[in-house]
Design goal:
- This protein is an alpha+beta fold.
- The protein folds into four domains: about 70 residues, no CATH class; about 35 residues, no CATH class; about 100 residues; about 100 residues, no CATH class.
- About 15% of the residues lie in helices and about 35% in strands.
- The chain contains five helices and 19 strands.
- The protein has a four-stranded mixed beta sheet with strand order 1-6-5-4, with no helix packed on it.
- α1 runs antiparallel to α2.
- It is extended, with a radius of gyration of 27 Å.
- The termini are far apart.
């Protein structure tokens, strides 16, 4: 609750960060005002606009008594909103526990009912990184907000997110080429969790994606949403460092560990993409302290094919790092 001073274009900021979209309502002297995208010179109504800062605090702006009313000096302004979305909104089972009294026409008096959450919450996520946006933006511009090619379907799917049910992390669209099934598109997806890891997409998220693609697709296309798979590859990395660089041994280990994580960053990987040893070694070995790097891919029973120089997976699966063992040894 706050009070205005009667000036033009007054700003009021929410106390909390991570304010949820479409959750803000503003009452002035108990009257509900209306949110608009911008003020109109021809309409001096009871309006306000909302902007958000980098931490997603909501900033409520009132007008100037020409393009919208100014709350009167001393008026009572109540701003209601929900916050806590994203990773910070995730809670463990039993976090919420409250007793409320309910009444029934068949039972006299109030009945105490305990309300609690019996499962962990899921679906929360933080904002996309700048790197992820740089990767996706050119693809989104190319798709032009419609689905025609398989690439369009994949891009629009990977852009899809919801306020409460999570977002798609990876997608692959496959067009069938067999007679009457030629207009059917299979879209394989994985959901992104709060720790930027992939997991099987929730049913409600896949339903939302199907509805979203239905509004973007060609009239004659039929879209099937399917679960993509993951293959976790165990890797052994042996790094040789010249003995006169012994003081850098731990530093080399940490840098190699960081480069392995960078190599497997989701922005660099697609569903069905093979793992090539030459690419992996080249990415992690560009350091003057390193003499040689040898890499071994552990055998795996998760439908992997290929040899020790490359790992290939089924077209609907994506390779992710399993256990990565890094050994740095000194050599003469």
């Amino acid at each position: 609750m706050t009070e205005p001073d009667g000036s033009r274009f007054q700003l009021f900021e929410t106390v909390h960060e991570s304010v949820l979209d479409n959750s803000v309502s503003v009452l002035v002297n108990e009257r509900q005002w209306t949110e608009v995208e911008f003020f109109n010179e021809n309409d001096n109504g009871f309006y306000y606009t909302i902007d958000y800062d980098e931490n997603y605090k909501a900033i409520i702006r009132f007008a100037d008594d020409i393009r919208g009313r100014i709350p009167a000096f001393g008026a009572q302004i109540v701003i209601r909103y929900r916050y806590g979305g994203g990773e910070r909104g995730l809670v463990d089972a039993g976090y919420m526990s409250q007793v409320i009294n309910v009444t029934s026409s068949t039972v006299p008096g109030a009945i105490p009912v305990t309300m609690t959450n019996y499962t962990n919450s899921e679906g929360g996520e933080g904002a996309e990184s700048i790197e992820a946006i740089k990767h996706k933006l050119p693809l989104w511009v190319k798709a032009q907000d419609r689905c025609v090619t398989g690439g369009d379907y994949a891009v629009m799917s990977e852009m899809f997110s919801t306020s409460y049910n999570g977002r798609i992390g990876k997608a692959l669209a496959v067009l069938r080429h067999s007679g009457c099934a030629g207009n059917i598109i299979d879209v394989y997806v994985l959901q992104l969790d709060a720790n930027d890891k992939l997991k099987t997409a929730r049913t409600i998220l896949k339903q939302g994606l199907a509805e979203h693609l239905d509004s973007k697709k060609m009239l004659t296309d039929y879209v099937c949403i399917k679960d993509a798979g993951q293959v976790f590859q165990n890797i052994s990395v042996n790094v040789a460092v010249k003995r006169f660089n012994a003081q850098h041994q731990k530093n080399v280990h940490d840098i190699v560990q960081e480069r392995v994580a960078e190599f497997f960053a989701l922005e660099r990987w697609s569903i069905g993409q093979p793992l090539m040893k030459t690419d992996f070694v080249r990415y992690i070995s560009n350091m003057p302290e390193i003499s040689t790097v040898t890499v071994e891919f552990a055998s795996n029973t998760q439908n992997l094919t290929g040899d020790n120089d490359s790992v290939a997976v089924d077209f609907w699966k994506i390779i992710r790092p399993g256990n990565v063992n890094i050994n740095v040894e000194l050599v003469d």
